[in-house]
Amino acid sequence: MKKLVALCSLLIASIIANANFGIKRDNFFLKSHTVLFKNKLEKNKLKIFLKLDDFDAKNGNSAATPTMDYLLSKKIKAAIGFIAIRCDESALSVYAPYLNAKNNKGEQLFEVWHHGLDHINPEFDGKNYDYQKAHFEQADKLMKDLFRLQMHSFGAPFNHNDATTNTVISENPNYKITMFNKPAADSQSGILNLENRVNMEIATGKPDYEAFVKNYNSKKGSYTDYMVLQGHPKFWKAEELNQFIKVIDFLISEGCEFDLPYNYYQSINSKTTKPKQTQKITFDALSVKKINDLDFDPKAKASSGLKVLYNSSNSTVATILDGKIHIVGAGTTVITTSQMGDTKFNSADYISQTLKVD
Protein backbone atom coordinates (compact mmCIF):
# COMPACT_ATOMS: atom_id res chain seq x y z
CA MET A 1 0.00 0.00 0.00
CA LYS A 2 2.81 2.39 0.93
CA LYS A 3 4.53 1.60 -2.36
CA LEU A 4 1.30 2.36 -4.28
CA VAL A 5 0.91 5.74 -2.51
CA ALA A 6 4.54 6.62 -3.27
CA LEU A 7 4.09 5.64 -6.90
CA CYS A 8 0.94 7.78 -7.20
CA SER A 9 2.76 10.74 -5.63
CA LEU A 10 5.59 10.44 -8.15
CA LEU A 11 3.08 10.24 -11.00
CA ILE A 12 1.20 13.35 -9.81
CA ALA A 13 4.47 15.28 -9.38
CA SER A 14 5.51 14.29 -12.90
CA ILE A 15 2.19 15.46 -14.35
CA ILE A 16 2.47 18.82 -12.54
CA ALA A 17 6.08 19.27 -13.65
CA ASN A 18 5.20 18.50 -17.25
CA ALA A 19 2.24 20.86 -17.09
CA ASN A 20 4.46 23.66 -15.76
CA PHE A 21 7.04 22.91 -18.43
CA GLY A 22 4.31 23.03 -21.04
CA ILE A 23 3.17 26.43 -19.78
CA LYS A 24 6.74 27.74 -19.77
CA ARG A 25 7.34 26.22 -23.17
CA ASP A 26 4.15 27.76 -24.55
CA ASN A 27 5.04 31.12 -22.98
CA PHE A 28 8.51 30.91 -24.52
CA PHE A 29 6.98 29.98 -27.87
CA LEU A 30 4.53 32.89 -27.65
CA LYS A 31 7.18 35.41 -26.58
CA SER A 32 9.71 34.28 -29.18
CA HIS A 33 7.17 34.39 -31.99
CA THR A 34 5.93 37.78 -30.81
CA VAL A 35 9.50 39.09 -31.06
CA LEU A 36 9.94 37.50 -34.48
CA PHE A 37 6.64 38.98 -35.67
CA LYS A 38 7.60 42.39 -34.30
CA ASN A 39 11.00 42.22 -36.00
CA LYS A 40 9.33 41.16 -39.23
CA LEU A 41 7.04 44.16 -39.06
CA GLU A 42 9.98 46.48 -38.43
CA LYS A 43 11.98 45.02 -41.31
CA ASN A 44 9.03 45.30 -43.68
CA LYS A 45 8.39 49.00 -43.25
CA LEU A 46 7.66 50.58 -46.61
CA LYS A 47 10.63 52.70 -47.66
CA ILE A 48 10.02 56.11 -49.21
CA PHE A 49 12.56 57.80 -51.46
CA LEU A 50 11.95 61.50 -51.96
CA LYS A 51 13.45 62.23 -55.38
CA LEU A 52 13.62 66.02 -55.47
CA ASP A 53 14.68 67.50 -58.82
CA ASP A 54 16.09 70.63 -60.46
CA PHE A 55 18.08 72.08 -57.55
CA ASP A 56 20.32 75.08 -58.16
CA ALA A 57 22.21 77.67 -56.13
CA LYS A 58 23.69 80.93 -57.35
CA ASN A 59 24.67 84.19 -55.69
CA GLY A 60 24.04 82.67 -52.28
CA ASN A 61 20.40 81.85 -53.01
CA SER A 62 18.33 78.78 -53.82
CA ALA A 63 14.58 78.64 -54.33
CA ALA A 64 14.38 75.20 -52.70
CA THR A 65 15.54 76.27 -49.22
CA PRO A 66 12.00 76.57 -47.72
CA THR A 67 11.45 72.88 -48.50
CA MET A 68 14.90 72.00 -47.20
CA ASP A 69 14.21 73.91 -43.98
CA TYR A 70 11.00 71.94 -43.46
CA LEU A 71 12.68 68.58 -44.11
CA LEU A 72 15.52 69.54 -41.79
CA SER A 73 13.11 70.50 -39.01
CA LYS A 74 11.31 67.15 -39.29
CA LYS A 75 14.55 65.20 -39.88
CA ILE A 76 13.13 63.66 -43.04
CA LYS A 77 15.57 62.08 -45.49
CA ALA A 78 15.54 63.27 -49.10
CA ALA A 79 17.64 62.89 -52.25
CA ILE A 80 18.29 66.21 -53.99
CA GLY A 81 19.31 66.42 -57.64
CA PHE A 82 21.33 69.41 -58.84
CA ILE A 83 21.63 70.74 -62.38
CA ALA A 84 25.38 71.26 -62.36
CA ILE A 85 25.80 74.45 -64.41
CA ARG A 86 23.06 76.17 -62.41
CA CYS A 87 25.34 76.26 -59.36
CA ASP A 88 28.21 78.61 -58.57
CA GLU A 89 30.85 78.92 -55.84
CA SER A 90 28.23 80.08 -53.33
CA ALA A 91 26.33 76.78 -53.55
CA LEU A 92 28.41 75.10 -50.87
CA SER A 93 27.81 77.81 -48.27
CA VAL A 94 24.06 77.60 -48.97
CA TYR A 95 23.79 73.82 -48.72
CA ALA A 96 26.54 72.89 -46.25
CA PRO A 97 24.18 73.10 -43.22
CA TYR A 98 21.77 70.69 -44.91
CA LEU A 99 24.42 68.28 -46.14
CA ASN A 100 25.92 68.15 -42.64
CA ALA A 101 22.55 67.34 -41.09
CA LYS A 102 21.96 64.02 -39.32
CA ASN A 103 18.95 62.40 -37.68
CA ASN A 104 18.82 61.15 -34.09
CA LYS A 105 20.60 57.95 -35.16
CA GLY A 106 23.47 59.91 -36.67
CA GLU A 107 22.35 59.08 -40.21
CA GLN A 108 22.76 61.49 -43.10
CA LEU A 109 19.55 63.32 -44.01
CA PHE A 110 20.31 64.41 -47.56
CA GLU A 111 21.98 62.82 -50.56
CA VAL A 112 23.10 64.83 -53.59
CA TRP A 113 22.46 63.03 -56.88
CA HIS A 114 23.47 63.60 -60.51
CA HIS A 115 20.71 65.38 -62.48
CA GLY A 116 22.69 66.30 -65.57
CA LEU A 117 24.91 69.13 -66.70
CA ASP A 118 22.46 71.56 -68.31
CA HIS A 119 19.02 69.83 -68.19
CA ILE A 120 18.37 70.63 -71.85
CA ASN A 121 15.89 68.09 -73.20
CA PRO A 122 16.91 65.53 -74.28
CA GLU A 123 20.30 65.58 -72.57
CA PHE A 124 20.59 61.80 -72.22
CA ASP A 125 18.20 60.41 -74.81
CA GLY A 126 19.09 60.02 -78.47
CA LYS A 127 22.46 61.76 -78.10
CA ASN A 128 25.62 59.99 -79.20
CA TYR A 129 28.11 58.40 -76.83
CA ASP A 130 30.65 61.26 -76.87
CA TYR A 131 27.97 63.85 -76.06
CA GLN A 132 26.50 61.86 -73.18
CA LYS A 133 29.92 60.88 -71.83
CA ALA A 134 31.06 64.52 -71.80
CA HIS A 135 27.90 65.78 -70.11
CA PHE A 136 27.90 63.03 -67.51
CA GLU A 137 31.55 63.40 -66.54
CA GLN A 138 31.54 67.22 -66.66
CA ALA A 139 28.56 67.35 -64.31
CA ASP A 140 30.22 64.83 -62.00
CA LYS A 141 33.43 66.88 -61.90
CA LEU A 142 31.67 70.22 -61.46
CA MET A 143 29.61 68.96 -58.52
CA LYS A 144 32.73 67.41 -57.03
CA ASP A 145 34.57 70.72 -57.34
CA LEU A 146 31.70 72.75 -55.89
CA PHE A 147 30.53 70.46 -53.09
CA ARG A 148 33.63 68.32 -52.50
CA LEU A 149 31.58 65.14 -52.59
CA GLN A 150 31.15 62.10 -54.78
CA MET A 151 27.68 61.40 -56.11
CA HIS A 152 26.52 57.79 -56.43
CA SER A 153 23.00 58.10 -57.87
CA PHE A 154 21.71 59.36 -61.22
CA GLY A 155 18.36 60.53 -62.53
CA ALA A 156 18.10 61.79 -66.11
CA PRO A 157 16.56 65.18 -66.87
CA PHE A 158 12.88 64.67 -67.75
CA ASN A 159 13.48 60.98 -66.87
CA HIS A 160 14.61 60.41 -70.46
CA ASN A 161 17.55 58.11 -71.13
CA ASP A 162 18.62 55.42 -73.55
CA ALA A 163 20.97 52.42 -73.65
CA THR A 164 23.94 54.71 -74.30
CA THR A 165 23.23 56.45 -71.00
CA ASN A 166 23.51 53.15 -69.17
CA THR A 167 26.84 52.44 -70.87
CA VAL A 168 28.19 55.82 -69.77
CA ILE A 169 27.02 55.35 -66.18
CA SER A 170 28.44 51.83 -65.95
CA GLU A 171 31.87 53.15 -66.96
CA ASN A 172 32.03 55.28 -63.82
CA PRO A 173 32.49 52.89 -60.86
CA ASN A 174 31.24 55.48 -58.36
CA TYR A 175 27.65 55.22 -59.58
CA LYS A 176 25.48 52.45 -58.17
CA ILE A 177 21.92 53.78 -58.45
CA THR A 178 19.67 55.06 -61.23
CA MET A 179 16.14 56.37 -60.79
CA PHE A 180 13.39 55.84 -63.37
CA ASN A 181 15.84 54.74 -66.07
CA LYS A 182 14.03 53.23 -69.07
CA PRO A 183 15.70 51.15 -70.31
CA ALA A 184 17.47 50.21 -67.09
CA ALA A 185 21.08 49.03 -67.04
CA ASP A 186 21.73 45.33 -67.44
CA SER A 187 21.58 43.45 -64.14
CA GLN A 188 25.19 42.35 -64.65
CA SER A 189 26.30 45.99 -64.40
CA GLY A 190 25.69 46.01 -60.65
CA ILE A 191 23.62 49.19 -60.98
CA LEU A 192 20.30 49.23 -59.12
CA ASN A 193 17.43 51.01 -60.85
CA LEU A 194 14.77 52.42 -58.53
CA GLU A 195 11.32 52.40 -60.11
CA ASN A 196 8.03 52.07 -58.17
CA ARG A 197 7.04 55.65 -58.98
CA VAL A 198 4.07 57.09 -57.11
CA ASN A 199 3.18 60.60 -58.26
CA MET A 200 2.69 63.30 -55.66
CA GLU A 201 2.64 66.10 -58.26
CA ILE A 202 -0.22 66.36 -60.76
CA ALA A 203 2.08 68.51 -62.92
CA THR A 204 5.67 69.71 -62.55
CA GLY A 205 5.82 71.81 -59.39
CA LYS A 206 2.22 71.03 -58.35
CA PRO A 207 2.00 68.64 -55.38
CA ASP A 208 -1.54 67.46 -54.66
CA TYR A 209 -2.25 65.64 -51.41
CA GLU A 210 -5.59 64.07 -52.38
CA ALA A 211 -4.28 62.86 -55.73
CA PHE A 212 -1.25 61.38 -54.01
CA VAL A 213 -3.32 59.45 -51.46
CA LYS A 214 -5.30 57.88 -54.31
CA ASN A 215 -2.08 56.96 -56.11
CA TYR A 216 -0.56 55.61 -52.90
CA ASN A 217 -3.55 53.42 -52.09
CA SER A 218 -3.65 52.05 -55.63
CA LYS A 219 0.03 51.06 -55.49
CA LYS A 220 0.68 49.97 -51.90
CA GLY A 221 -0.50 46.44 -52.60
CA SER A 222 2.14 45.92 -55.29
CA TYR A 223 4.90 48.31 -54.16
CA THR A 224 5.58 46.62 -50.84
CA ASP A 225 9.33 47.31 -50.58
CA TYR A 226 9.64 50.96 -51.57
CA MET A 227 8.08 53.90 -53.39
CA VAL A 228 9.76 56.79 -55.18
CA LEU A 229 8.09 60.21 -54.98
CA GLN A 230 9.30 62.90 -57.39
CA GLY A 231 8.98 66.62 -56.70
CA HIS A 232 10.31 69.99 -57.85
CA PRO A 233 10.68 72.23 -54.76
CA LYS A 234 12.16 75.21 -56.61
CA PHE A 235 8.70 75.82 -58.08
CA TRP A 236 6.77 75.42 -54.84
CA LYS A 237 5.13 78.41 -53.21
CA ALA A 238 3.37 78.36 -49.84
CA GLU A 239 0.35 76.35 -51.01
CA GLU A 240 2.45 73.77 -52.85
CA LEU A 241 4.72 73.35 -49.84
CA ASN A 242 1.65 72.87 -47.66
CA GLN A 243 0.43 70.09 -49.97
CA PHE A 244 3.84 68.44 -49.69
CA ILE A 245 3.75 68.69 -45.89
CA LYS A 246 0.38 66.93 -45.87
CA VAL A 247 1.88 64.15 -48.00
CA ILE A 248 4.74 63.74 -45.52
CA ASP A 249 2.36 63.72 -42.54
CA PHE A 250 0.29 61.03 -44.25
CA LEU A 251 3.34 58.84 -44.92
CA ILE A 252 4.44 59.20 -41.30
CA SER A 253 0.96 58.14 -40.14
CA GLU A 254 1.26 55.10 -42.42
CA GLY A 255 4.44 54.05 -40.61
CA CYS A 256 6.66 54.51 -43.67
CA GLU A 257 10.42 54.89 -43.41
CA PHE A 258 12.28 57.56 -45.40
CA ASP A 259 15.57 56.47 -46.90
CA LEU A 260 18.28 57.60 -49.33
CA PRO A 261 19.07 55.78 -52.60
CA TYR A 262 22.75 55.13 -51.95
CA ASN A 263 22.12 54.20 -48.32
CA TYR A 264 19.55 51.68 -49.53
CA TYR A 265 22.03 50.26 -52.04
CA GLN A 266 24.63 49.85 -49.28
CA SER A 267 22.14 48.15 -46.97
CA ILE A 268 21.26 45.46 -49.51
CA ASN A 269 24.90 45.03 -50.52
CA SER A 270 26.36 45.10 -47.01
CA LYS A 271 28.60 42.08 -47.67
CA THR A 272 30.44 43.91 -50.45
CA THR A 273 30.41 47.39 -48.90
CA LYS A 274 33.38 48.04 -46.65
CA PRO A 275 32.73 50.36 -43.68
CA LYS A 276 34.81 53.53 -43.54
CA GLN A 277 36.18 55.58 -40.66
CA THR A 278 34.85 59.01 -39.74
CA GLN A 279 36.95 62.15 -39.83
CA LYS A 280 36.53 65.68 -38.50
CA ILE A 281 37.84 69.07 -39.57
CA THR A 282 39.29 71.65 -37.19
CA PHE A 283 38.94 75.19 -38.54
CA ASP A 284 39.46 78.19 -36.25
CA ALA A 285 37.76 81.58 -36.58
CA LEU A 286 39.33 83.96 -39.10
CA SER A 287 40.77 87.35 -38.18
CA VAL A 288 39.82 90.50 -40.10
CA LYS A 289 42.00 91.06 -43.16
CA LYS A 290 43.06 94.09 -45.20
CA ILE A 291 42.71 94.38 -48.97
CA ASN A 292 46.47 94.35 -49.50
CA ASP A 293 47.15 91.34 -47.27
CA LEU A 294 49.03 88.45 -48.84
CA ASP A 295 47.48 85.07 -49.64
CA PHE A 296 47.16 82.97 -46.49
CA ASP A 297 46.46 79.44 -45.34
CA PRO A 298 44.00 79.24 -42.39
CA LYS A 299 45.58 75.89 -41.50
CA ALA A 300 42.40 73.89 -41.17
CA LYS A 301 43.14 70.23 -40.49
CA ALA A 302 41.34 66.94 -40.93
CA SER A 303 41.71 64.26 -38.26
CA SER A 304 42.41 61.77 -41.06
CA GLY A 305 45.52 63.68 -42.11
CA LEU A 306 44.06 64.12 -45.60
CA LYS A 307 44.33 67.49 -47.30
CA VAL A 308 41.60 70.04 -46.55
CA LEU A 309 40.20 72.23 -49.32
CA TYR A 310 38.64 75.70 -49.11
CA ASN A 311 35.70 77.37 -50.81
CA SER A 312 34.77 81.07 -50.87
CA SER A 313 31.11 82.03 -51.25
CA ASN A 314 31.89 85.52 -52.60
CA SER A 315 34.54 85.74 -55.30
CA THR A 316 34.50 89.55 -55.20
CA VAL A 317 35.94 89.38 -51.67
CA ALA A 318 38.18 86.32 -51.80
CA THR A 319 39.04 83.38 -54.04
CA ILE A 320 41.07 80.23 -53.53
CA LEU A 321 44.46 80.27 -55.23
CA ASP A 322 46.87 77.33 -54.96
CA GLY A 323 45.10 76.12 -51.84
CA LYS A 324 45.31 79.49 -50.09
CA ILE A 325 42.84 82.33 -49.58
CA HIS A 326 43.47 85.20 -51.97
CA ILE A 327 42.04 88.60 -51.00
CA VAL A 328 40.22 90.37 -53.84
CA GLY A 329 38.22 93.21 -52.30
CA ALA A 330 36.44 94.59 -49.25
CA GLY A 331 33.38 92.86 -47.84
CA THR A 332 32.50 89.52 -46.27
CA THR A 333 32.57 85.98 -47.56
CA VAL A 334 31.99 82.55 -46.08
CA ILE A 335 35.01 80.27 -46.21
CA THR A 336 33.98 76.61 -46.06
CA THR A 337 36.41 73.75 -45.52
CA SER A 338 35.87 70.25 -46.83
CA GLN A 339 37.51 66.84 -47.01
CA MET A 340 35.70 64.36 -49.24
CA GLY A 341 37.37 61.22 -47.91
CA ASP A 342 38.99 58.28 -49.66
CA THR A 343 38.88 54.48 -49.58
CA LYS A 344 39.39 54.47 -45.81
CA PHE A 345 37.56 57.59 -44.64
CA ASN A 346 34.08 59.00 -45.14
CA SER A 347 33.77 62.64 -46.10
CA ALA A 348 33.99 65.08 -43.21
CA ASP A 349 31.27 67.52 -42.22
CA TYR A 350 31.78 70.96 -43.71
CA ILE A 351 33.06 73.67 -41.37
CA SER A 352 32.51 77.34 -42.24
CA GLN A 353 33.93 80.61 -40.95
CA THR A 354 33.14 84.18 -41.98
CA LEU A 355 35.97 86.24 -43.42
CA LYS A 356 35.76 90.03 -43.26
CA VAL A 357 38.02 92.18 -45.40
CA ASP A 358 38.35 95.92 -44.70
Automatic annotation (TrEMBL):
GO terms, biological process: carbohydrate metabolic process
Highest taxon above the source species: Bacteria
Signal peptide extent: 1-19
Record key words, sorted: Signal
Protein name: NodB homology domain-containing protein
The species this protein was found in: Pedobacter psychrophilus
